[in-house]
Write a structure and sequence with these properties.
- This protein has 322 residues and is of the alpha/beta class.
- 22% of the residues lie in helices and 23% in strands.
- The chain has seven helices and 18 strands.
- Strands 6-7-8-9-10-17-18 form a seven-stranded mixed sheet, covered by helices on one side. It has a six-stranded parallel sheet with strand order 13-12-14-11-15-16, with helices on one face. Strands 1-2-3-4-5 form a five-stranded mixed sheet.
- Strand 15 (242-246), helix 5 (253-258) and strand 16 form a beta-alpha-beta unit.
- The radius of gyration is 20 Å and the shape is globular.
- The relative contact order is 0.15.
- The structure holds zinc ion (2 copies).
- Residues 25, 27, 30, 82, 103, 321 line the site of one zinc ion.
- One zinc ion (ZN) is lined by residues 27, 29-30, 103, 317, 319.
Length: 322
């Protein structure tokens, strides 16, 4: 149900309500409501306030500012490069340094601070895409494919399925960086989080609700919706939508086919195989614990490169954010 910090009587990303929770980031499988005290970055607390109405017992922890916990444990939140506000948590206790990464990636993302490589004794890393087959292409290539598909189909709209926290804003920011300055239309479920990002200093340009816009006016437009809305009734109001989906799992053709996705975009907010192995090499800890995904291949890689490692079986993490 999370990682327990025994001397401090606290938990990291617990799946049940506890007295003291340290939360790495706002995705639903890590951040839950109902804790007595929630220690997290100000942006993560803002996201949790929107999602759960958490306000009482919120303890902001700014990046790189140590927080004293009970039992002589110090916790420092460091950027993880995953989504806005996401953090690795550095724990210091009795001269030992432990880092719990939460979810992270190494590729650049205009919507959040980059992952900070930080020395430690024990590195507890996620491994969502911990297989050599998972190599995410540069996001600029995927955005270029999206724009090319749009240009080739002027009578249709491109409907992009993207998770509401992180992926949607990253796709929008990358579209802007690629020179797409026209209005981007949103499913109603995307609105709140996009506004929150903007309030936190991440500009997203001209965003509009798709609801109420005449069908003909959406020809040639880009519309962003939650993955669940890609093929539901909602999308029928759009002009012959060309369905796209932004996810690391789009690397697996069968997954794209299952969802009826015409244009799979391999865009992930998790480290791919190369990023995972590079990160372990750069952090160079005395020991690595692997969790939250496919542990076996990474464990084997550690063994082959003479690194102490073990798999940590944590349950309850089902990503909304791949
Ligand atoms: Zn996440
Ligand atoms: Zn996760």
């Amino acid at each position: 149900m999370g990682i327990r910090i025994v001397p401090a009587d606290a938990w990291i990303d617990p799946s049940r309500a506890v007295a003291r929770a340290l939360v790495t980031h706002g995705h639903a499988d890590h951040a839950r409501g109902g804790h007595e005290h929630t220690i997290a970055t100000p942006a993560t607390l803002a996201i949790m306030a929107v999602r759960y109405g958490v306000a009482d017992g919120a303890v902001p922890a700014s990046y790189r500012e140590p927080v004293a916990l009970a039992g002589g444990v110090t916790a420092t939140f460091l950027p993880a490069g995953h989504v806005l506000g996401s953090a690795q948590i550095l724990l210091e206790y009795a001269g030992e340094r432990v880092i719990v990464t939460g979810d992270y990636k190494r590729s650049p993302d205009p919507t959040c601070l980059p992952f900070a490589v930080t020395p430690c004794d024990l590195f507890i890393t996620e491994a969502t895409f911990g297989l050599p087959v998972f190599r995410h292409p540069p996001i600029a290539d995927e955005i270029a494919r999206l724009l090319a598909a749009r240009a080739a189909n002027p009578e249709r709209c491109v409907l992009v399925g993207a998770y509401a926290l992180g992926k949607a804003q990253r796709v929008i920011a990358e579209l802007r960086a690629a020179g797409w300055h026209a209005p981007i239309y949103l499913h109603g479920a995307m609105e709140t989080m996009c506004r929150l990002y903007e309030a936190q200093g991440v500009p997203l340009g001209d965003l509009r609700q798709a609801a109420g816009v005449p069908k003909a006016d959406l020809a040639g437009a880009i519309v962003i919706c939650p993955p669940s809305a890609l093929n539901d009734r909602w999308s029928r109001r759009l002009p012959d939508p060309l369905t796209a989906m932004a996810s690391g799992w789009m690397r697996v053709r069968q997954r794209a086919r299952q969802r009826g996705v015409e244009l799979p975009l391999v865009i992930s907010d998790h480290a791919d195989w190369d990023e995972l192995t590079r990160t372990i090499a750069e952090v160079n800890p005395a020991e690595t614990w692997i969790t939250h995904g496919r542990e076996e291949a990474l464990l084997r890689w550690c063994e082959l490169s003479q690194r102490r490692a073990r798999a940590l079986a944590l349950t309850g993490y089902e990503d909304e954010d791949d």
